Amino acid sequence: MATAATTTHSGSPGDPPEPSYLTVKRGFRNWIVTLDHKRIGVMYLIGITTSFLLGGVFALLVRTELFLPGSQLVNEQQYNQLFTLHGAVMVFLVIIPGLPAALGNFSLPIVLGAPDVAFPRLNLFSFYLWCTGAALLLLSLIINAADTGWTFYTPYSTTTGTAVVPAVGGAFVLGFSSIFTGLNFIVTIHKFKPKGMGWFQMPLNLWGIYSTALLQVLATPVLGITLLLLLVERIGRIGIFDPALGGDPVLFQHFFWFYSHPAVYIMILPAMAVMSDLITTFSHKHIFGYRFIAYSSIGLASLSFLVWGHHMFVSGQSRLAGMVFSALTFTVAIPSAIKVFNWVATLYKADIRLQTPMLYALAFILLFTIGGLTGVFLGALNVDVHLHDSYFVVAHFHYVMMGSALIAFLGALHYWWPKMFGRMFNERVGQVCAILIFIGFNTTFLPQFVLGSRGMARRYFDYDPEFTSFHQVSTVGAFLMGITLVVSFGNLVYSLFRGKRAPRNPWGGSTMEWQAPSPPPLYNFYAHEQPVLYPIYDYSDLYWDETEGGYVRRPGAKPEAEGYEP
Amino acid sequence: MSNHVHESGYDDETHSDMGHVASKRVLLGTWGTLMVLTIVTVTASKIDFGAAELNLLIAMVIAVIKATLVCLFFMHLKYDKLFHSVVFVSAILLATLFVTFALMDSNQYQHDVYWQQRDFQPTTEVDKSYPALQPY
Amino acid sequence: MSASEHGHGHGDQAGGHGHGEPQSRFIQHHFDDGAHQFESGKLGIWLFLGQEVLFFSALFVAYIIYRHNHPEIFQYAHKYLDVKMGAINTGVLILSSLSAAWAVRAAQLNQQRLLVWCIVVTLLCALGFLGIKYVEYSAKVHHHTLFGKRFAPTEAPDGTEIEQPDATPGKTEGGAPAPKEPLNTVGGVKAQPVPGAAGPPPGSAPVVPGDPAASKEEPASAVSGVGVLPAIEAQKTAGAAIDTHASARPPPNTGMFFTIYFAMTGLHGIHVLGGVIVFIWLLIRSMKGHFGPKYYGPIDFAALYWHLVDLIWIFLFPLLYLIA
Q1: Cβ-defined contact of A247 to C61 (cutoff 8 Å)
Q2: Secondary structure (DSSP) of A434-475
Q3: Which residue of A51, A212, B17, C187 has the smallest Cβ count within 10 Å?
Q4: Global pTM value
Q5: Domains in chain A and their CATH numbers?
Q6: What is the helix (H) or strand (E) element at residue A544, kind and residue range?
Q7: The complex's ipTM?
Q8: Comparing A353 with C222, which gets the higher pLDDT?
Q9: C240 in contact with chain B, both atoms CB, cutoff 8 A
């Protein structure tokens, strides 16, 4: 590990006593082998946003192709490749790692007041694995992009001539990146909690990260073995999924969805985790129902293992299994609903500030409600027989994956941006972008519910003319969203050069990371300024200080309430 | 921190600062039991108990006993924090869940599977007695 | 009392930091002390073992499903495996588990030479295991008892010859060309399935897709009734072990047994190999005296991994080799 930084700047008053993690030991080589969780988080962030833009380009190509019936830009084969790459990039490179690896890596130790995660070298290794997986997916794109859909169903994936092996190999490697990140987070939360922070004094952000990490460690290995078997089947023709040799393709689906259903909870749980922090901070109010949210995080993680068959209602799964999975799927909606009720109850009679992160948080509540409820429709066995593989499903999962998980990612990014880089982005631009993204998103995906219920099938290159107007509205919305997303990223990047310097606590957050300098030094806190643990979500002592330009605790604020003794 | 300097009831030579030191007796005893059980399981497999399932059951019971010995003594789970056992057992429970559901499902649709696919030629006539076409 | 967390803070490196103890240089800076690092590593390795269990779980699922639905395949094909070799391998791994556990004990008690010897024994056992597996695998390659399509043995498990599809009598084992079609298809002849047709292999019925009678009579596991020898069928319902008569040919899709066999033992073997690499690294470090009572985490964690490898084999052995 690097020694404590010894150099200071010119020594004039107002200069920080230590350089920040960004400027200590400069140079590409120092970044690429860093063990600092903050730098690793920033590198993940760069990779993930780049992948997001790439996946977004694929999405826009898909939507352009669908603007009119018939072929516009590409032929059928290329269309299949486009949506496969869009799905694989977005799922494996962006959403699954997104919140945990990029933002979680940065914030988790600081929120705990710790100097780093439990296993910094493993953390760096996880990042290298992410890069390798990304390279393999790109390789597939370059050679002859896979056209199987991101779900790689057999027997098509074992017989198609496209470059499935690098794509599957990339997903395999990315799975291990996810596993090791989750492992790291679980041990960090268990072993690096400060004195006085028991399990029920933890920020709810950490409950969400913990639940996500449990899923990452326990569910992802099944994806690993599934993809490995798929690779061996494709290369060696071992026959495990090949009916001609006695194999069972439905077994592939069982294997695949046993991971991929918990995977969608890996995507949404960190988003919900961040939501609790965002809602409380911008309502300046204690969260309603702390324990309910904590328990529902674990409950959601546990229940998520029981419902994977709802992806397979019409795949050849038996009717009995279908009924069992359908019943269980209804139960999994309950913890999510509990959280939404609690967030809304937190908003009630609160001092709400509609700053950019809060706009994203409010968008999340609405979009997640729509996405979650439509999931319950799809969980009903008889309804799903009609809606399976239609645009209704596409709209549903975009509402939960993009409208919820990605929106929360954007909200969290804006929330922690001042902490990460020490700069404030343009608030007005941020707010306008948030609103336009919300409008663009709904314009894109609301018509798709109608399309699906009227019979438009997903992954179809061509369609009947009766669906044209819906597709056109959707495409317009997609472009609006795409442009606005680019503008909002540009707003953030611009702030790196021209943004106002950020105070320690620009938003009035009550968790420990807001006591650290913005941006933090190498070991997160100055040696002489160890952070103080305050009662969780207690905003009573936080007030805006004009000279500081941010929020501070009233001097003499009580550090710990009774009952926090370990 | 937790467990250490932990009264075990066995005559450990010393206590380590971190973690429990396994005694020679425990290690050798576990090893010996494992070897004996291996011989037992091989022998039992050669005996015909009547039903094939019974042989499988006996073999699995012996395997579980062996596995438990390895977990408790070689892997120190008996002397470790409970949470480690929770992690391990949870993984096994999840795997069991996986097996149960997948087996239940595949069991249900087996009668739809044509086991010999290679020369399958569909008949031109619909076979009304085909299970999936029965009204329910 | 400011709620400082375990004394975190980069300025003050409390304890165990370059003060004369040779192992303490391996305590990383962000931990409070050696015990904190050890405890964290222990939790970490148990989480890793948990995920390894799930990594193997899909293969066990496949095994259970195929064996439940098609027990005749397993009862026929497992005889190709050599129980003696499997048992020796089991003994070898159990011994290596003992030496790994003893290595941990040696490190805890500062018995440096014993530690090195224990690791050496573990390594030798692991390499022995791999050697035996190599012998077994080459035998299978030699007998063409491989996975999926490549399952094309010329001999039944009891040594009798299996008739090849183009039925040249008196073929010897070594010179048999691998037939293009696996033997478990209907005589390898692409014929229209006609009930009761005089197809080449007497005694095996061709596929009759529209024949529900055959498939309906037996319970779920018996679509295999179509195309399986009547002898096997009758004995299955009796519940006794299958008598593979001299002229018996493999049941259809017997290659699936070997698919599962190679997948399970292959993945296990890769893990053994990984363990070998880890133990070589540990051997080098222990010869340099890196480990002792205050720092033995890597030995402990590697031993835990190794015990898991042993655990998996404890289940693989009876499931694959000891089928009654």
Answers
A1: no
A2: HHHHHHHHHHHHHHHHHHHHTTPBTT-S---GGGHHHHHHHH
A3: B17
A4: 0.85
A5: 36-553 (1.20.210.10)
A6: strand A542-545
A7: 0.92
A8: A353
A9: yes
